[in-house]
From TrEMBL:
It comes from the Bacteria. The keyword Coiled coil applies. Residues 56-70 have a biased composition (Low complexity). Residues 54-104 are annotated as: Disordered. Residues 1-21 form the signal peptide. Residues 26-53 form a coiled coil. Pfam families: Porin_O_P. The lineage of its organism: Bacteria, Pseudomonadati, Pseudomonadota, Alphaproteobacteria, Sphingomonadales. InterPro entries: Porin_dom_sf (IPR023614), Porin_O/P (IPR010870). It comes from Sphingomonas palmae. This is Phosphate-selective porin OprO and OprP. Keywords: Coiled coil, Signal. The keyword Ligase does not apply.
Length: 499
């Protein structure tokens, strides 16, 4: 590199020497010198970048000439003499006198990626990355659900409280390799705890036209009931109905196992076998849960759907999971004193639950009814503990948007807002109502409760929403801090962002 630089300097010296200029005038000579100096500067800058030097100490081109920094144009004798009084002549070449900084390097990388065919698309608030050959995809995931709840009207001051909470605070990733392999991972940080939620790998393929399947293995979310199969960021109310929260395996909404699913044009079916959810207990065998669900859309059009669904599960409990005590929410999640309770219940050996779904939508109006029953088997020859729950809910998008029904999974997803607020529209406004009932009275210590909810949802766009629920609740617990019949009201609000 150094001989090339010396040659460049000599060329500049020859060009800049007046004795070698034959016919050009002084002005032409000055312009020529400035152009040649700019070209030399550009060449030196390129050489500096190739050598990876941030700053190259340059030697004087001729004896007595001061050193020239790598990031400045080398002074030419005629240029220095005439620069102050001659108009500048723009060189046809654009020298880069400063090595690229971080921002410029990012732009360079982006241009190189774009030239290679790497693409991104923006969906629900974050980009989806695609490799040039389409083999690899990657997308960040997350949800932020922030709630405020206040309860009043109870006969007990312990229930008349105001609280705040993060219903979900999740961060994760999803992606795929090729057309078949896919994966997803999410962790939740709400309630000051780190909790692994969805975490699986999967394989998908097509059996025939209109018939395909996937198989997922890992930490899996239940496919059970309509609202129970809907993510916490997509439910039309701040909390799922009692069917989803009470008629549930003892291990909860998640378990480690495998889930094959079959999809056709008007429905789907799934089968799941899992052990416990993520935990650190490997001293005893896990509980074993088998769960199945199917839904069918006998009527399906662009503006309407009829939904039918059936589901059930059977659970054999681990020796470390024999406690069946339940305290189920009835007036909102963030009031720990407001629950329907079974009282202490020990000695469980297994549970069996099942339920049905009937509903659908026509235009902007939707209705969904659900019912379920759970039998918990007890040791010592005691009769089963039976839980029963049902709910009826509905909604109306006053802005004319369609309900966010997902016909592939038979659940709710993110809405497709026709006129988002961020584009100058009103967003999507939905009015909702629900009645739900829960009965634990098969047990001597078991309670009962019901709740009627009216609500409003304002979807600013497909991934930002504001929610309001006003709940009138009634409980009749036989044990606990508040026994006997009690009723009151709870007002809850939520700000939700999903991406």
């Amino acid at each position: 590199m150094k001989p090339l630089r010396t040659g460049c300097a000599l060329i500049a010296l020859v060009v800049a020497t007046p004795a070698l200029a034959q016919t050009p005038g002084a002005d032409e000579l000055a312009a020529l010198v400035r152009a040649q100096a700019a070209e030399i500067a550009a060449l030196k800058a390129r050489l500096d970048r190739l050598e990876g030097a941030q700053q190259v100490a340059s030697a004087p081109a001729t004896p007595g000439t001061p050193p020239v920094a790598a990031n400045t144009s080398p002074p030419a004798p005629v240029q220095l003499a005439q620069q102050a009084r001659r108009p500048q002549v723009t060189s046809p070449y654009a020298p880069q006198l400063v090595p690229p900084g971080p921002a410029e390097r990012d732009v360079t990388r982006a241009r190189e990626a774009n030239a290679a065919g790497v693409t991104t698309e923006w969906g629900a608030g974050l980009p989806v990355f695609h490799s040039a050959d389409g083999v690899f995809t990657y997308k960040p995931r997350g949800r932020i659900l922030t709630d405020v709840s206040t309860t009043f009207g109870s006969k007990s001051d312990t229930r008349n409280i105001t609280t705040t909470g993060m219903r979900a605070l999740r961060l994760g990733i999803e992606g795929g390799v090729g057309t078949h392999f896919f994966y997803q991972f999410e962790t939740d940080f709400s309630e000051n705890e780190v909790d692994i939620v969805t975490a699986f790998i999967g394989w998908r393929n097509q059996i025939a036209a209109g018939l395909d399947y996937d198989v997922r293995a890992g930490h899996l979310f239940n496919d059970r009931a309509f609202e129970g199969s809907t993510g916490s960021d997509s439910t039309p109310f701040l909390e799922r109905s009692t069917v989803s929260t009470a008629i549930i395996p003892q291990r909860g909404f998640y378990g480690i196992g495998i889930m094959p699913r079959l999809f056709w044009k008007t429905g789907h079916a799934s089968f799941t076998i899992t052990g416990d959810r993520v935990d650190g207990n490997q001293a005893v065998s896990d509980s074993r849960t088998i769960l199945a669900r199917a839904h069918w859309n006998p009527i399906k059009s662009d503006t309407g759907v009829l939904h039918l669904g059936l589901w059930g599960f059977d659970e054999s409990l681990s020796s470390a999971a024999t406690t069946l005590t339940r305290n189920t929410v009835i007036g909102g999640r963030f009031n720990g004193a407001l629950r329907v309770s079974t009282g202490p219940l020990l000695g469980g050996t297994g549970t069996t639950g099942y339920g049905a779904e009937l509903g659908g939508y026509a235009g902007p109006v939707w209705v969904m009814g659900e019912a379920g029953r759970r039998n918990a088997r007890l040791d010592g020859g005691r009769p089963d503990f039976v839980s029963k729950a049902w709910s009826l809910s509905g909604g109306w998008f006053v802005t004319g948007d369609l309900p966010p029904y997902n016909p592939r999974l038979g659940s709710f997803g993110q809405p497709r807002v026709l006129r988002p607020v961020f584009d100058g529209g009103p967003g999507a406004i939905e009015l909702t109502a629900r009645y739900e009932d829960l009965d634990f009275t098969n047990l001597v210590t078991g309670g009962r409760g019901w709740a009627a909810t009216i609500g409003a949802n304002w979807y600013l766009n497909s991934f930002v929403r504001l929610q309001l629920n006003v709940i009138h609740w009634n409980t009749d617990n036989r044990v606990g801090a508040v026994t006997g019949e009690d009723d009151g009201q709870t007002v809850s609000t939520r700000v939700a962002v999903t991406f």
